[in-house]
């Protein structure tokens, strides 16, 4: 369990450069690594809890054995005081038995206590490393998203200068120029037609004036 956690930590500590060069999605892989590490921590917590319970159980048995040793000692004294040497002897024999059990339990409890302390230290190390990796994950995820955005922008920019885009742009520009030329031509034709009409209108106006002038001359006897 702890070995597996160390392996995951080693991968994380390398900043996952290999993953960034492969097809895997770094963000998804980082999240998966963190889930694996969190599972390792839960398993470690269960192991620590079990070891602590075992240590407490052994400690209780050790206390019970020591209490029986003291009890048998006290009973042996009372039996002797009462003149019952045989009862005192049996009390001392049972005392020896519990003393032997207490010694065995003492060794087991000390070992269990040391193991529990070691597991607690390792568990705390795992939690600290998890926090460190979690912070690093956020940084790596931000870098991955930035890289994706840059790639997308660069691709968009590169497509702007492609032959297809350029040709399409030039084609539209040519079409606009043609529209403008057609508009100017139609305006020239309209102006030309208007000038011709104006000349005829002026001619007709001049004729009217001439007629009126002739009539006026006749009245004045100028002819």
Automatic annotation (TrEMBL):
<dbReference type="InterPro" id="IPR007157">
    <property type="entry name" value="PspA_VIPP1"/>
</dbReference>
<comment type="similarity">
    <text>Belongs to the PspA/Vipp/IM30 family.</text>
</comment>
<dbReference type="Pfam" id="PF04012">
    <property type="entry name" value="PspA_IM30"/>
</dbReference>
<feature type="region of interest" description="Disordered">
    <location>
        <begin position="150"/>
        <end position="169"/>
    </location>
</feature>
<protein>
    <submittedName>
        <fullName>Phage shock protein A</fullName>
    </submittedName>
</protein>
<feature type="compositionally biased region" description="Polar residues">
    <location>
        <begin position="154"/>
        <end position="167"/>
    </location>
</feature>
């Amino acid at each position: 369990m702890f070995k597996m956690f160390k392996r995951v930590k080693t991968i994380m500590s390398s900043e996952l450069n290999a993953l960034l060069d492969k097809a895997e999605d770094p963000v998804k892989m980082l999240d998966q690594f963190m889930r694996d590490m969190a599972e390792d921590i839960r398993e470690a917590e269960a192991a620590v809890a079990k070891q602590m319970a075992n240590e407490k159980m052994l400690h209780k048995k050790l206390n019970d054995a020591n209490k029986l040793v003291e009890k048998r000692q006290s009973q042996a004294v009372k039996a002797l005081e009462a003149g019952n040497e045989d009862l005192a002897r049996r009390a001392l024999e049972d005392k020896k038995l519990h003393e032997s059990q207490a010694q065995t339990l003492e060794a087991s409890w000390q070992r269990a206590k040391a193991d529990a302390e070691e597991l607690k230290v390792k568990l705390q190390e795992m939690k600290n490393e998890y926090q460190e990796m979690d912070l690093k994950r956020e940084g790596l995820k931000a870098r991955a998203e930035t890289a994706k955005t840059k790639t997308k922008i660069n691709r968009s920019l590169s497509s702007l200068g492609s032959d297809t885009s350029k040709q399409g742009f030039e084609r539209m520009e040519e079409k606009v120029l043609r529209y403008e030329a057609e508009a100017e031509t139609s305006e020239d034709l309209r102006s030309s037609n208007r000038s011709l009409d104006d000349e005829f209108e002026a001619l007709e106006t001049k004729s009217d004036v001439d007629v009126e002038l002739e009539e006026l001359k006749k009245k004045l006897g100028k002819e």
